[in-house]
């Protein structure tokens, strides 16, 4: 089995996807050999006890595919050309190479798009019409693929594999990661007691208006002044850490920043310690729902709004219409109705878990 995706880049969301996939596949298919295509193969191999090859190691990727029965491409939003056309071509090329060798190919719990270029849409149709199975983490992604005229593969809407991460851990692992989360939060300087812990996931975004950072800085300082313990967490550390530091710098009321890289399982437990989560990064919301923690989205990309809609969670604001009052109001509402919201999210989580398991069932069916 070969797994291709945005792995080895230090994004907690994508690393959580991979950890969930590996654990779930091993549980369902004992003895399964797994090779991951990664930007940092030594780190991926060491953390997950898998074989790994560099994503630009053409020979290594070719040998891995030849030695495998199946390629899983995903999860995550791999097929899009907003951040880079090159990445779209890359992931399509890996799938096309696997099919040229006669291997089975599954698009695994993907979020598709946006693919805006004519060339990109033609390439997606050409490759996706050759693969065997495609599952999508939301209905909008499925409909976008169908709009390309793709007809051949078996398609189904499932859910993000990260919803299986919690159940993949043993009781001992749960305790270890929970303890590590508490220690990480303490090292940020967050007081052990006080007002509610409100965790914030933000990222720099090239299309954000100039006012966005100032609005968020004021809104978070206001939440802190009202008694919340506000913790900013960079999910993609290399991209998000400097932005989080910028927001916290010079704040009149304390804003705390997670200043260390943590494993995705630890990030999941940090969300579990929170009383509310406001998330711009998609997987901050997935983590929160996995722990039934009240949360709200900051919508900057269709994938975030799509997940918010499917999970029944509120949108605090669109990135182009962020206001201090909007952030304050939605956070106060989440905290005041915490038990009610948590109960609703627990029910949603059960459905997401069921759908995420379906991804693994389809892999088993394809492997026979």
Describe the protein in words.
- By secondary structure, this protein is α/β, with parallel strands linked by helices.
- It folds into 2 domains: 2-165 and 353-367, Glycogen Phosphorylase B (Rossmann fold, 3-Layer(aba) Sandwich); 171-351, Glycogen Phosphorylase B (Rossmann fold), CATH 3.40.50.2000.
- It is 50% helix and 15% strand.
- Helix 12 links the parallel strand 12 (295-299) and strand 13 (315-318).
- Helix 4 (85-100) runs parallel beside helix 5, helix 7 (171-187) packs across helix 10 and helix 10 (264-273) crosses helix 11 (282-290).
- The longest helix has 30 residues, at 338-367.
Provide a quick synopsis of the model.
This protein is α/β, with parallel strands linked by helices.
**For this structure, what is the CATH homologous superfamily of the largest domain?**
Glycogen Phosphorylase B
Shape: globular
Number of domains: 2
Q: What is the succession of H and E elements?
A: EHEHEHEHEHEHEHEHEHEHEHEHEHH
Task: Enumerate the strands of the largest sheet in spatial order, edge to edge or round the barrel.
Answer: 3-2-1-4-5-6-7
For this structure, the CATH topology of the largest domain is Rossmann fold
Q: What amount of the residues lies in strands?
A: 15-25%
Radius of gyration: 20 Å
Any low-confidence stretches, pLDDT <50, length ≥5?
Answer: none
Main β-sheet description: 7 strands, parallel
Gap from first CA to last CA: 13 Å
Q: Helix proportion of residues, in percent?
A: 40-55%
Strand count? 13
In the CATH hierarchy, the architecture of the largest domain is 3-Layer(aba) Sandwich
């Amino acid at each position: 089995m070969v797994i291709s995706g945005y792995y080895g880049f230090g994004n907690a969301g994508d690393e959580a996807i991979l950890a969930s996939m590996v654990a779930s596949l091993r549980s369902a298919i004992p003895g399964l050999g797994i090779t991951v295509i990664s930007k940092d193969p030594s780190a991926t191999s060491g953390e997950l006890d898998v074989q790994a090859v560099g994503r630009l190691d053409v020979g290594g990727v070719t040998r891995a595919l030849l030695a495998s029965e199946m390629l899983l491409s995903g999860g995550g939003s791999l097929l899009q050309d907003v951040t880079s056309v090159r990445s779209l071509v890359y992931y399509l090329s890996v799938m096309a190479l696997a099919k040229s060798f006669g291997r089975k190919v599954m698009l695994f719990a993907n979020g598709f798009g946006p693919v805006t270029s004519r060339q990109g849409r033609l390439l997606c149709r050409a490759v996706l019409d050759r693969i065997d199975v495609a599952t999508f983490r939301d209905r909008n992604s499925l409909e976008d693929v169908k709009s390309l005229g793709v007809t051949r593969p078996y398609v189904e809407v499932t859910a993000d594999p990260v919803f299986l991460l919690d159940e993949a851990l043993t009781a001992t692992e749960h305790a270890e990661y929970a303890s590590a989360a508490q220690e990480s939060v303490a090292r940020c300087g967050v007081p052990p007691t006080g007002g509610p812990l409100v965790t914030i996931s933000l990222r720099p975004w090239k299309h954000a208006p100039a006012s966005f950072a100032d609005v968020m800085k004021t809104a978070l300082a206001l939440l802190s002044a009202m008694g919340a313990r506000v913790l900013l967490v960079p999910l993609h550390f290399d991209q998000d850490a400097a932005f989080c530091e910028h927001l916290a710098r010079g704040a009149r009321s304390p804003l705390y920043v997670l200043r260390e890289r943590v494993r995705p399982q630890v990030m999941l437990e940090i969300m579990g310690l929170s009383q509310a989560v406001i998330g711009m990064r998609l997987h901050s919301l997935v983590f929160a729902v996995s722990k039934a923690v009240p949360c709200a989205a900051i919508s900057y990309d269709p994938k975030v709004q799509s997940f918010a809609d499917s999970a029944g969670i509120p949108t605090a604001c669109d990135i182009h219409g962020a206001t201090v009052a909007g952030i304050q109001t939605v956070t106060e509402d989440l905290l005041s109705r915490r038990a009610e919201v948590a109960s609703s999210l627990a029910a949603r989580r059960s459905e997401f878990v069921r759908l995420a398991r379906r991804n693994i069932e389809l892999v088993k069916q394809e492997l026979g």
